[in-house]
Predict the structure.
Amino acid sequence: MEGYTSTDQSNSSSPTILYNYSKDGYTFWSTPPQDLSMSPDVAAHYDVLVSEAYADNDNYFFISELHRTQAAISLLLLNAEEIVYTVPTEDPWFSATTPLPGNYTSPVFMSDLNASVLGCATTMLFCRPDLPKSSGCLDGFSGTLFGGNGTDGFDALWPEKDRESTIRTIVDLLNQSPESFYWLPSVSAILAGDTVTGNEQLAALPADQWKTEREHLFRAALTQFQSKLVDFARGFWDGGGVLCKQEGASCRRACHTQRAKSPKFYSFPAFTLMLVVLLGGLIMLVAMFLEDLIGLLIKHTRLSNTRLAFAHATWKASSTMQLHRLAHENLGLGSWKRTDEDIPVTGRGEMLGVFDVDDRRHVGMRLPSEEVELVAAGKEGVVVRGRKQYERVPSNL
């Protein structure tokens, strides 16, 4: 983009640099910075001015050298006049190899130009996959697309009225160049700005930093397209748009929410969830009442044979509470009731066996000692060898 600048000397104290990329005169202008120095207290940032024109539009105003077919031509003027660089960079857009005047402990550099221009051409085609590219694509930046004269090409590629209305809506949503991110007031679209502290660029920008910037912007544009398509599929489009307001044109909103793969939500079939809940609940109920059900079957059906009855009795006797009953009953302790149910019980106040832990490697159950029997008989406590060994525990039972 060199060779298209001139200097306006009408103001000798502050000459103006003109960037002559328009057929009718200059496109941008800039003035040299005043008293640039390192200042951590100054919040400097990169400014980008955008000038854009459609190549196939009758109002195309750039010089012929910048013309490209089927493209949106954009000129990006990068203004970094307030930023100083701790490391020089030879990137053509961020070029900074000029030493900053002043006494500094280490070399400091400033931009070689007051502002530098980057030219870009963006192509956007909307194609039918079942047609060849030469005849099955619509130029998203064509001048006829927004001419409103009924020759925009939608009806030729999509003769079905419903499809044309849907595609027209999608094109209207996505018809936006990546340069639109530079117009956002509160978001910086320059990656190099992330490493600026105060007015100092602390990073060593590579010689192809401009490529990184453009790739970043292109990825952001693709992400925006995906987000807009998801919103449209979910019925969030509220109408409007240039392509929808033209004479004879119509746009259709997606009235029914579509399934879209997105991290914003998760979809699952309600039938599967209901089936899992019902089967899980059924298994829990069967496990809870299985023993009672088998007992009823043995008692009231023809399944009541000796072998099955023996197996069922063995199963019930192997439960934890019944094993406790068997241990005490084998010692001749307790008058047991409900021995065929889940929880067997003894009479009130009956004596049960005690654990013998003299041999901790072989713990057993034995008959209660005489002292325990005395306490059980009504004494408040028994003293053995000068110490109270057994004592009645108060009970409200």
Observations:
- The mean pLDDT is 78.
- The chain is about 25% helix and 15% strand.
